Amino acid sequence: MSRRPPRRGAPHHPGDAGDAAATAGRAGSPGAASTPAAPEHPSPSRLRLPSSGLAHEILAAVDRQPPAGSPERPETASRDTASSETPPPPLGPTRIYSFADSLERGHSAAAAPALPPERPESWVTFELAGELYALPVARIQEIQRARGITRVPHAPPPVRGIANLRGKVLVVVDLRLRLGLPPAVADERSRILVVSSRQRSLGLLVDAAHQVLGLLPSRIEPPPADLMDERSAYLAGVVQLDDSLVIALDIDQLLLVPDEAATPSHTEAGGPP
């Protein structure tokens, strides 16, 4: 069978016969047009469409298709990253309890309430030998004028005497004597602070009562360490005001009298009522 010679003027290359025949067959088909060969690209991964669905579902599947040459889908990478950052669940027979405890700790840390703001505390200031002292308002029941104090023989110092408080006997302690200050005569400025201590009502004789202060607990500074010993355990702290210092007292420690202060001096025994 003889081969058809190539057309006049057409270049002849070995192996072009099949290509020419294929091109001629396409050109001879009705409505066919020759198109340039597309550049080579990596073949895209095969798209898996749902067997049924609406148009927006199919388009969503196309959008999720990774571009050609990408090693993995973006959402898969993000899931892998998230899984690497999340600690693995606890193992062992108690894994359910451990997992519940971890969730509870996380919830408690997220829902931990903020610390409440600092609130001022009320203190009553009074005077002794020209110095200012303070006691908590919560421990003071009332303030009385220093009248009708009756001496009691063999009363333990620093007890000044007893007074009548609406039909009840009130033991009155002279705070000057308790703090080692010289005794003084009670006058119109003197007051009795009726306080509660160890489920008892006792009276404290002071030179004068001043005012009620609202103090933040952070403002009460601890007393100097070189001044503290067993005899000064009643010192609760020091408060600095604009032009003076206020010594805060611990009422329960204040009424514990050390042994060396239990011996009355001649001045105390013969002091004014």
Features:
about 270 residues; alpha+beta; OB fold (Dihydrolipoamide Acetyltransferase, E2P); five-stranded mixed beta sheet; 7 helices; about 25% strand; disordered C terminus
Structure report:
Helix content is 22%, strand content 25%. The chain has helices spanning 17-28, 55-63, 74-85, 95-110, 175-178, 251-254, 266-269, and strands at 121-128, 131-136, 140-145, 159-165, 168-174, 191-197, 200-206, 208-215, 235-240, 245-249. The protein is an alpha+beta fold. The chain has a 5-stranded mixed beta sheet. Strands 3-6-7-5-4 form a 5-stranded mixed beta sheet. The protein contains 7 helices and 10 strands.
List the helices and strands and how they pair.
Elements: H1 17-28, H2 55-63, H3 74-85, H4 95-110, E1 121-128, E2 131-136, E3 140-145, E4 159-165, E5 168-174, H5 175-178, E6 191-197, E7 200-206, E8 208-215, E9 235-240, E10 245-249, H6 251-254, H7 266-269
Parallel strand pairs: 2-10, 5-7
Antiparallel strand pairs: 1-2, 1-8, 3-6, 4-5, 6-7, 9-10
